[in-house]
Design brief:
The complex is a heterodimer of chains A (387) and B (131). Chain A is mainly alpha-helical and 387 residues long. Chain A contains 15 helices and 2 strands. Chain A has a two-stranded antiparallel ribbon. In chain A, helix 4 runs antiparallel to helix 5. Chain A is elongated and about 120 Å long. About 5% of the residues of chain A have low confidence. Chain B is built from 5 helices and no strands. Chain B is rod-shaped and about 90 Å long. The chains are: A mainly alpha (387), B mainly alpha (131).
Chain lengths: 387, 131
């Protein structure tokens, strides 16, 4: 567990150091995934759905605020809808307009949820969204999650029914619009999913704010269970066909994501929690204080023992020769002369000790071993003397 | 001579001025009542447009049923329902908008006050250095 916290600290350190780069990379990934998924699902306009356009849009959006990505995604969807038919475009534009008027005008930051919800649906992990927003956001975000769900089902319907909606001409315009609206808003599966998401988000939010021990973990598990129960109930009661495998796998993924979020946003040590009670003139206070868990990432310092030191090898013959020739020479000068002589010799005396190459290494003695040897030698000498 | 406290203060001021400050200064130019009133009026207009859009979507979704069951009584009932729905929506959104923008104005004013406070502190630091 400690290693996890150390990993978290390191990750936070790395992010703090390079947050600008990380943010931009993340924005680029979100943009390219969004545009790719839109083009892959409803790419009816050939020019707009080309990989070059997708990449170009993603690159452009990376250098602007997140809201630009949302606007570009909306425009891309509308362009594809236009390629299907004018009626589909009108209805889709109307739905987006209603979303903007009633909600995103007041909380523009929540528009990101609308973007991320269909992405989660396409990755088959939609259950992550209500759980995550229940854990880290406020209940109002359920409107954004619901809008995102509507956008996804709208795209799904267009994807399936596009051949039927295309080329009906002016006569079938109203019928076309009517059928589209009807199909989108009378989709039982969509409403069951929205209901499950709303209940899940509210429950998760309520439970995780409780002072009970392990509130986050309880909230995560209950949220996932509620998702499964409501969607299964919808399957039984209304006849909504759901794949149970994807339902369960999706919710397991949601639990895993929830636990990761807990590690980053709410890691506390319940074992050291304190319950305090005190009062003032007006109130009695019952306070539960839970210490946060934080592990300082260990800093590795490399201490070098027996560091290799450069030693100078003196050519003893040369020194003797010089001392004989010049008589007495001052000590410093003598050394300088020795050095000069070495330089003159060139390769004869190595300037620097070369690094050992691979092969049999020289036997090394550690201090204890040397001491032992000296002691034995001393004892031998003593014994010889005595003998 | 570089003063560490002054540099810190100036950084904080510049950071605010270039991020949240831009919008906050615009907001704090208005009286609270004017600011809220302006946005409530805007909101009512937007909600009217949105309500019409929703109405159109609802009518489109139930167009066939509506045409099949069309009568004067049904039409009047629908009209009354639509008007009542509109009034309720406008009132709810008026309240929500006034609450949201009241909070926004309050927060912006608070931040601008802090900014001014820091500005005065900075001036005092300069004066201290001159003397």
């Amino acid at each position: 567990m400690d290693s996890l916290f150390v990993f978290r600290e390191k990750l936070q350190e790395v992010y703090a150091k390079h947050s600008r780069i990380f943010d931009k990379v993340l924005q680029f990934i979100v943009a390219i995934v969004t545009f790719y998924l839109i083009n892959d699902n409803v790419g009816f306009m050939k020019i707009a759905s080309s990989p070059a356009v997708t990449l170009a849009l993603a690159v452009i959006c990376t250098f602007f605020p997140m809201n630009i990505t949302i606007i570009a995604a909306t425009a891309l969807i509308l362009a594809h809808m236009f390629a299907v038919s004018l009626g589909v475009l009108a209805v889709t534009a109307l739905v987006f307009l209603v979303m903007y008027i009633f909600y995103f005008r007041l909380t523009p930051k929540m528009a990101f949820v609308v973007l991320i919800t269909p992405i989660a649906f396409m990755f088959k992990i939609p259950y992550v969204i209500p759980l995550v927003y229940g854990l880290i956001s406020v209940p109002v975000s359920l409107i954004a999650v619901s809008c995102g769900t509507i956008v996804y089902y709208m795209m799904q319907y267009v994807k399936k029914a596009a051949p039927g909606l295309e080329g009906k001409g002016k006569d079938g315009f109203m019928t076309q619009i009517s059928a589209y609206v009807k199909q989108v808003f009378q989709n039982k599966e969509m409403w069951v999913v929205i209901a499950a998401f709303i209940i899940c988000l509210l429950l998760v939010y309520t439970i995780r704010r409780q002072s009970a021990d392990h509130a986050w973990k309880i909230a995560i598990v209950i949220g996932a269970v509620i998702n499964v129960v409501i969607i299964a109930a919808g399957d039984v009661a209304i006849g909504v066909h759901t794949s149970y495998t994807s339902l369960i796998v999706g919710n397991i993924a949601a639990v895993v994501v929830g636990l990761i979020l807990e590690l980053f946003f709410f890691s506390v040590d319940y074992a050291r929690s304190e319950n305090l009670q005190y009062e003032d003139d007006e109130y009695y206070y019952y306070v539960k204080a839970i210490p946060k868990l934080s592990v300082a990432s260990p800093e590795k310092t490399v201490k070098r023992i027996n560091e290799r030191q450069e030693t100078e090898i003196i050519d003893t013959d040369e020194v003797r020769r010089k001392s004989r020739r010049g008589g007495k020479v001052p000590k410093g000068r003598e050394l300088r002369e020795v050095k000069k002589a070495k330089n003159a010799k060139g390769g004869a005396v190595p300037k620097k000790r070369t690094e050992p190459q691979s092969g049999p290494s020289v036997k090394k003695h550690d201090i204890d071993e040397v001491n032992k040897m000296l002691l034995t030698q001393g004892l031998k000498q003593d014994l010889d003397l005595k003998g | 001579m570089l003063d560490e406290n002054r540099v810190k203060l100036m950084t904080r001021l510049a950071l605010y001025e270039q991020t949240e400050g831009k919008e906050d200064f615009k907001i704090s130019e208005y009286y609270k009542s004017d600011y809220i009133g302006m946005h409530v009026i805007c909101s009512v207009l937007w909600v009217t447009v949105g309500y019409v859009c929703v109405g159109v979507l609802v009518v489109l979704a139930g167009l066939e049923d509506l045409m099949a069951k069309m009568s004067m009584g049904l039409l009047v009932t629908l009209l009354i329902g639509a008007v009542a729905g509109y009034l309720v929506t406008v009132i709810i959104f008026g309240i929500v908008t006034s609450h949201v923008y009241n909070k926004k104005h309050q927060n912006a004013r608070q931040r601008v006050k802090l900014f001014n406070h820091d500005l005065i502190k900075l001036l005092k630091l300069y004066e201290k250095e001159k003397n």
